[in-house]
Design goal:
- By secondary structure, the chain is an alpha/beta fold.
- It has 6 helices and 6 strands, in the order H-E-E-E-E-H-H-E-H-H-E-H.
- The protein has 2 domains: 73 residues, 2-Layer Sandwich (Double Stranded RNA Binding Domain), CATH 3.30.160; 79 residues, Winged helix-like DNA-binding domain superfamily/Winged helix DNA-binding domain (Arc Repressor Mutant, subunit A), CATH 1.10.10.
- A hairpin with a 2-residue loop joins strand 1 and strand 2.
- It is globular.
């Protein structure tokens, strides 16, 4: 999946005197409910599930438009149909440098696989980071495409998901061929 340098989007917005990229959004019907996709400057920067917690203020999503989302919409349709196992749509999640590192690890978890929060923490420096990993995972602004649903408890249990555990279970079952 194509991504931008880990902390470039957040750093650019904090230090740039230039204009903020134009944001727009669209709403997409899916098997797990209506998804809200947000792009900034034409790059996917948000994908929010129904009842997403925490959900940004919808006023920050920009105008509603169907243009500029074609690649993301096509890839999501292929994913839900079981024909896509990796996303290549360009993404630009905005977050802290640590969040960016966590989200980069999430993108290495293969389709149909899971990794524990401790496993993600281990890749980032050790078990003392488990809570911070959980917090960053919960703040992932591009659900499904950056697969935070693939992170589970140390015992394999489904814990914490911004869109609810039923949706997490559905996504994992879909990836394992159970749907």
């Amino acid at each position: 999946m194509e991504t931008f340098p880990p902390d470039a989007p957040a750093r650019h917005r904090r230090h740039s005197a230039g204009p903020t990229p134009t944001r727009q959004h669209t709403v997409l019907k899916s098997p797990i409910g209506m998804l809200t996709l947000v792009n900034a400057g034409g790059v996917l920067s948000g994908l929010y599930l129904p009842d997403h917690r925490p959900r940004p203020d919808p006023a920050t999503f920009g105008i509603r438009s169907g243009e500029g989302f074609e690649v993301a919409v096509d890839q999501l349709a292929e994913y839900f149909d079981g024909d896509r196992t990796e996303f290549s749509v360009p993404v630009a999640p905005v977050g802290t440098p640590f969040q960016q590192r966590v989200w980069a690890v999430l993108q290495t978890i293969g389709y149909g696989e899971t990794m524990s929060y401790a496993g993600v923490a281990g890749r980032l420096g050790g078990p003392t980071l488990v809570r911070a990993v959980g917090a960053a995972n919960g703040r992932n602004p591009i659900s499904i495409v950056i697969p935070c649903h693939r992170v589970v408890g140390s015992d394999g249990s489904l814990v914490g998901y911004a869109g609810g555990l039923d949706r997490k279970r559905w996504l994992l079952n879909r990836e394992r061929g159970s749907h």
